[in-house]
User: Fold Radial spoke head protein 3 homolog from Pangasianodon hypophthalmus.
Amino acid sequence: MTSVLQPKRGPPDGSYTYSSRPHAAPSRLRHTEPAVMENEGRPVYGNIMYDRRVVRGNTYAQHILPVTAQPDPVEIQWQQEAMRRATARKGAKDKFQTRSSGTLEERKHIDVQTELYLEELSDHIEDASVECQTDAFLDKPATPLFIPAKSGKDAATQIEEGELFHFDLEVQPVLQVLVGKTMEQALLEVLEEEELAGLRAQQCAFQELRNAELVEVQRLEEQESRHREEKDRRIKQQRLILKKERETAEKIAARTFTQHYLADLLPSVYANLRDHGYFYDPVQRDIETGFLPWLMAEVNNTLEKHDVARTVLDMLIQDVTNQRQEVFQCVSCK
Assistant:
């Protein structure tokens, strides 16, 4: 069974729409020239190269078949309604449009800029001519606003034996292509799986090697860190030793300088201190401070007692002498 399209009404804008009435398919002519045959008043072409509906070459001179179908009443009514609405809208716009009061004699008309950014106006307007070449475009047919539903009846066409292809004979290349393509795809998938397995194995080996290298790198880093710490510790120890040696050398030098400086200073200082009595013999100091003052005090007491005794003796002797003198004087007077 072969279905043939029913005729369709074309839209009123002149766009091309293919349509044909149902008719019986003519017998197939083989090995004949492309002659035109009459069938129900329409030409039938045996070769599409001679069909005027097939465009050959460029489409600049495309032949558009005229539309002979009657316009759709619904489309006409819709266009009339649109024109009436446009006329009413234009009349309302002219009615409510604000009209100016005209030009007055004392009014001066000047041009005022109403743009957002002001610009300098000059008498000479700068212009430039630019040309460009564009491709020629075909007029696109307008999109139909309404496509009516399919109407009519389908017609059947008798197909004789041998007019269609032989399935068992012509399916072999298709089967060969399908089977070959399937086998090739399966082989590619197997090869891809083997390649993926090899890649996974190589990746596992590479990962193991990488892990071993990472462990070795970590061990070397730890060893390097320990060596660096040991080096820093040795450097600190050496710096401390050098510091102590330097301090010891400075102390020894200061001590030697002090000894040499005080070699002549100490005797003079000791002599001066000795002269001022800071250095003394305890026995001598005890004799000088304890015994000699006591001895001098005792001698002074003894001498004072002797003086007193002499004075008393002198006084006694003087009294005795005075008495005897008085006695002698009295005796002599008598």
Observations:
- Residues 1-12, 29-41 have pLDDT under 50 and may be disordered.
